[in-house]
Design goal:
Layout (H helix, E strand, L loop, with lengths): L14 E5 L5 E4 L15 E6 L5
Antiparallel strand pairs: 1-2, 1-3
Length: 54
């Protein structure tokens, strides 16, 4: 099972992060803090990493 990231934690990679409790998704930018959750004890999991074209 993937480790859940707490709100306010810097995103380890850019992409879509899913709130494990609600199933909603937010966009996270690498190095920027993840947004707050509606309730305490909830967290995020990276579900779709951004694909960069070179």
């Amino acid at each position: 099972m993937t480790k859940s990231l707490k709100p306010g934690t810097p995103a380890p990679a850019s992409g879509q992060y899913k709130n494990r409790a609600l199933g909603t998704e937010v966009t996270g930018v690498q190095g920027k803090p993840l947004p707050p959750t509606p309730r305490s004890g909830q967290g995020y999991v990276l579900v779709d990493r951004t694909k960069h074209k070179k």
